[in-house]
Amino acid sequence: MSERVRESLYHALLWLVSLIFFAPVFWIALSSFKTAPQILAVPPLLFFRPTLANYARLLAEPAFQHHFFNSVALSVLAVLVAVAVSFLAAFAFSRFRPAATNFLMFLLLSIRMLPGSAAILPVYLMYVAFGWKDSFVGMTLFYAMFSIPFSVWILKGFIDGVSPRFDETGLVNGASWFSIITRLTLPQVFPGVVAALIFNFIFVWNEFLFNYIIGGINTSNIPVMLATGLSNGGGIDWTFLSSLTTVYILPPILMVYFFQRYLLVGMTFGTVRGEV
Amino acid sequence: MSHIRFEGIGKSYRGRPALEMINLDVEPSSLTVFCGPPGSGKSVLMRILIGLEAPSAGRILSNGQDITRLTAAERSIGYVPQSFALFPHMSVFDNIAYPMMLQGVPRAEITSRVDQAAEMLRIRPLLSKRPSQLSGGEKQRAAIARGILKNADIFILDDPLVGLDFKLRESLMEDLKDMRTEIDATFLYVTADPLEALTMAEHLVVMDQGHLIEAGPVDTVYYDPTRLRAAELVGFPRCNILPGRLDMPGAICTTALGALQVSLQDGAAATETMVAIRPEDIAPAASDSAPLGVGEVTLVENLGSEAVVYVRFGETTLVTTISAGATAHVDLGDPFPFMIRPGAPIVFERESGWRIGRASPVLAGTRND
């Protein structure tokens, strides 16, 4: 078998596996443009007259607006808080290397590795005691706290790669530490910051368990809505489900598509300084 | 203009000394080169002067004022670090303008001064580029421009030419000298390269293993060193160092090259010695005069205007330099009759390394003991 044929076969196999993985996403997106009978038709309809009625109904639905707003606001705010705090922490770990830095970094990451179900009870009791249950600020801080360890890990790797000579040049010329961090270091680790933002956004956007337990009517997000609010007259409301799911999965997919180069660089913790 | 005084400066890292008891005066408006092998402490001393590190002992005075505890920003010292440290996300213009931007200099003045510095360093067409688009020499020029544009009267250049090719170094050395004359500031220049040190220096400070070995005008340090280590470290090609034995009375030092008549400084006694002879003080003997010895040429390194010749004489290998014109007559394995310039060899006490006198070769029949 020639090299060219073998390469074509590999590519065909890759396409096939990719399409199999993408099939559920394609099915749900396609269903969002169908009527209920078309969705339930056997065999499935591939060719049909698409309708936007499902989206019109979804966007007009106050519950959707409320949950979508919560998902966006919680994800954006928590991630911004987490990355801002993490950046300063990572800078301190990288430049001032407090005693037992490596152990502290290990502790940070080990907290992140804790399964959510192991932490849910103490977190629930704590939030009830503080009066933070179903509080927007409480949920934002919780997600930020959960996002910080991983962000510190990513950002420290990037900041380690920036020579301290830049800091010294700033110091000698009269720059404050704040100016050094924001004007000299931050622009050089921008890919790492973007990677941290995306990783954490996807985590918060997808999070269900904590939102379900320590959230409530004011703070519940789309995953909670998907799990709890889709039955219609005893059955599943497939048209609503498909349009809601499509809207829900769109932001992470677009993010991964447009920022995949940053994600690849981020996954190496800054050890590979890709040209991005 | 700033007069700088280092008083008993010491620095140690986790109990390991990096600098010990550095006492030194740097004259205003001088170009002082700090020279020494890697790890000698010269860069640490500069970092302490800039304020990037605190000394473990001693203090630094600038015009009589103690600046030891001032922050780097408060010291008003321009600095060109060893690595270029050009900010990759800024244009060359913004890099050069950075110190003035921080100092709040008006935009029009910044533009004019950046243009002036860029003109002087021949990087004007590069101002809109990013550092990643520059060659090594261009980056270094940009870093130098940024260092000198700070409003300061002391400038530290920490091995600014390291890693550059010879032609570029030569041209940048000229530029730096011209620039210093123009801005009339105190320049402290750090290098591990003895040739660069000799080319640049008005005053030379020799450092080794955290100690200040020798300091003074460059000619004095080169031709009249008081320490053996200074003779070893300063000079290219390297100085010939021969063991010897000084016998009294008569002050005759016996070496592998024969007897040397030593003109002793006060208080010297019979002792084991080391004799330093600069390569240029060993010359081919004239055909009509008796040579001090006849060696065998083992290697000739042609440097263009001159050649470095390695001559084996008994167990000793001597290094000497001859003019380019004379190289045609020197081949590997050739006999090499040589002379030593009277008064050139410097005799040091072996144990302490301090100079005890100068010597002249004792030719047959001239010994006076």
Oligomer: heterodimer
Beta-strand content bin of chain A: under 5%
Order of H and E elements of chain A: HHHHHHHHHHHHEEHH
DSSP helical segment count of chain B: 8
Shape of chain B: globular
- Taken together, the total number of domains of chain B comes to 2
User: First CA to last CA of chain B: what distance?
Assistant: 55 Å
CATH topology group of chain A: MetI-like fold
Low-confidence runs of chain A: none
What overall form of chain A do the CA principal axes indicate? Answer: globular
Rg measurement of chain A, Å:
23 Å
CATH superfamily of the largest domain in chain B: P-loop containing nucleotide triphosphate hydrolases
Strand order of the largest sheet of chain B: 6-7-8-3-9-10
The number of distinct β-strands of chain B equals 21
Strand order of the largest sheet of chain A: 1-2
CATH architecture of the largest domain in chain B: 3-Layer(aba) Sandwich
Tell me the strand percentage band of chain B.
35-45%
Radius of gyration of chain B: 24 Å
Q: How would you sum up this structure, described in words?
A:
- The complex is a heterodimer of chains A (276) and B (369).
- Chain A is mainly alpha-helical and 276 residues long.
- Chain A is built from 14 helices and two strands; from the N terminus they run ααααααααααααββαα.
- In chain A, strands 1-2 form a two-stranded antiparallel sheet.
- In chain A, α1 crosses α13, α5 crosses α7 and α8 packs across α9.
- Chain B is α+β, with helices and mostly antiparallel strands.
- Chain B has two domains: 226 residues, P-loop containing nucleotide triphosphate hydrolases (Rossmann fold, 3-Layer(aba) Sandwich), CATH 3.40.50.300; 124 residues, RNA polymerase II/Efflux pump adaptor protein, barrel-sandwich hybrid domain (OB fold (Dihydrolipoamide Acetyltransferase, E2P)).
- Chain B contains eight helices and 21 strands.
- In chain B, α2 crosses α3 and α2 packs parallel to α4.
- Chains A and B meet through α8 of A and α2 of B.
